[in-house]
Amino acid sequence: MRPHIRAATSDDAVALSRFARDAFHDTFAADNAPGDMEAYLREAFSPERQAAELADPHRCCLLATVGGDLAGYASLMQDAAHPAVVAAHPVELERFYVARAWHGRGLAALLMQTAVGQARAWGTDVVWLGVWERNARAIRFYEKQGYETVGAQTFRLGSDLQRDCVMRVRLA
């Protein structure tokens, strides 16, 4: 089956909440304290929070589906500045997750291509993201997509303050 990518709507909030929570947990739970993980999951991926983000006109959430099942998503935010990112119109790739069953099968590259296309449509000159410094697989993927590390930022997971690499790609 071929993947399909579309913009999320408010009707997707509950399914997105469930998928996003599971994807984050699957990616990071083994390397973090259960209490910190649960606190972050409750805060970041509630259906109410997802609905609010989907309603924000400065954001776009792209859903990747295969055979009608959610297989990945990318969330972008317009004009999101970061001190390490020099840009006239920056776009932050806030979240980017693909279900493990789809790793290495081209879905992530297709989703990234679509996300960058959305950023171009907004007239951005730079897309940037934060990625946990210990997530080597994601860093390699982003580098293959043309991203380079330009700085760092902190990320709070429950009570644990972590370090993210800030990466960016310039759009011509």
Mean pLDDT comes to 96
Number of helices: 5
| Strand fraction | 25-35%
Give the overall shape.
globular
Give the tally of structural domains. 1
Structural class: alpha+beta
What is the N-to-C succession of helices and strands? EHHHEEEHEHEE
Distance between the termini: 33 Å
Number of strands: 7
Quick tags:
Aminopeptidase, 172 residues, 7-stranded mixed beta sheet, single chain, alpha+beta, globular, 5 helices
Folded structure, characterized:
Strands 1-2-3-4-5-7-6 form a seven-stranded mixed β-sheet, with helices on both faces. The model has no long low-confidence stretch (mean pLDDT 96). The chain has one domain (3-170): Gcn5-related N-acetyltransferase (GNAT) (Aminopeptidase), CATH 3.40.630. By secondary structure, the protein is α+β, with helices and mostly antiparallel strands. The protein has helices at residues 13-28, 34-44, 47-55, 107-121, 136-144; strands spanning 3-7, 59-66, 69-78, 90-98, 126-132, 148-157, 160-170. The chain is globular. A hairpin with a 2-residue loop joins strand 2 (59-66) and strand 3.
In short:
This protein is α+β, with helices and mostly antiparallel strands and 172 residues long.
Layout of helices and strands:
Layout: E1 3-7, H1 13-28, H2 34-44, H3 47-55, E2 59-66, E3 69-78, E4 90-98, H4 107-121, E5 126-132, H5 136-144, E6 148-157, E7 160-170
Parallel strand pairs: 4-5
Antiparallel strand pairs: 1-2, 2-3, 3-4, 5-7, 6-7
Helix pairs in contact: 1-2, 1-3
